[in-house]
Amino acid sequence: MLAGVFRPSADFAGFCANPRTGVDSAGAPYADRPGSVAYENNWLRSWSNEDYLWYDEIVDVDPIHHDTPTYFNLMRTFATTPSGKDKDSAHFSLNTEEYLAARDAGVAVGYGARWALLRSRPPRDIRIAYTEPNSPATRASLTRGAQVIEVDGVSVRDGAPSALNAGLFPSEPGEAHTFLVRDLAGSERTIVLTAEEITEDPVQNEANLERAGRTVGYMLFNDHSRVSEGELAAAIRRFANDGVEELVLDLRYNGGGLLYVAAELGYMVAGAKSIGRVFDGLQYNDKSSHKNFDFPFLQIDSEDQALPTLDLDRLFVLAGPGTCSASEALVNALRGIDVEVVLIGAATCGKPYGFLPEDNCGTTYFSIQFKGVNDKGFGDYADGFVPVRGGGTEPWHVPGCLVADDFDHLLGDPDEARLQAALGYMQTGTCPAASSSAVSLTALDDALPMKARDLLRENRFYDGYRDAVVRQDRHRARVLRQGR
What we know:
It is globular, with a radius of gyration of 23 Å. By secondary structure, the protein is an alpha/beta fold. The protein is built from ten helices and 26 strands.
């Protein structure tokens, strides 16, 4: 290696230490060729120098001295944000087949319970945030707020993390584990949960609420996935038919996903005022500025069908540290076209960056390549959007209220603290008394002593976005032809 000198990444692409044979999930033959770890690392070195947003902050390390996973982890900046968190908190890789399966199917192995760690270090406190329909959790009558006391006889409060992880996060269908739980009403019981392949339902708890003579729509939205696209359109169509005048979108557990789904949702919220405006403008590094591209709000879905819209001037978003990436892009995009966003809960996680997943030799790499900005050119919220009573003074401050996550009520219950605060704000424009625990109580999946968070759910992916833009342009052309 000659320090500071980089051959094109294409010179090393597909030369693999363990080349794949046969065909991929789409039926195409693998293009892998016999190579080595050195080839794979050299590809990472050159690719990172070409495409990584902060390529000039990478220390140029000799690729022959590390295994590939270790070397990839060095191909990033180690700088921090003003708050002290990692500037790059979204640098990871996955087995390619695992990534494609998770992206396309919305299926995961588990019990259908999303765990919330109110305290991740002893004395730990683990609750259920929500459950998936028709899952082992719902069949065991588990609901939001139930507390896990023991896992396979090991105390959650101060037991061994390895034992707790094994029970809380099963790896194979058919695994059975015993739980002592305390239900929302306070009674304790022992149950056995057997892991299954869980098809996640990303849109739940849609409801109409009446407040001060106005119809308010509420829905829990947990993942910008392919599965969610049709469910979102159906929910918005029902809200439109029911005359919904205000919408509360619960994104507190939505870690991100596909940006084209978020762009569709943005149009369904804002309607005509979003047409022709930027939803997410991509800004690459100075070597790749020719790739800069402004993605619009999308008016049609992946089946080329026109989307419904509520034509709202204001959106209430329930949020917290689990609100990331594509969910933050939605907030930023709407603010960029002067749709008022009221944020209720706690600061979002702070991921204004994105990437195009890149496969090499059976591993898909996720390395930040661009920053996303709204129609006004703003995208500087690396420490998250912060709800501030009265609106605040910084551009990442959002009018709203700090409200602790409430595990004593079900999601969608008008008495649940965050939803109650949103409904109150609609009527009075004021916030309830802020809880001192508003931030700490929402540190979801802050499980460093236990299990790493699922990064795949906490990032923005542009898969399918360009295709969606092409579909929209063709759709507009057809409409214009039909109108002549």
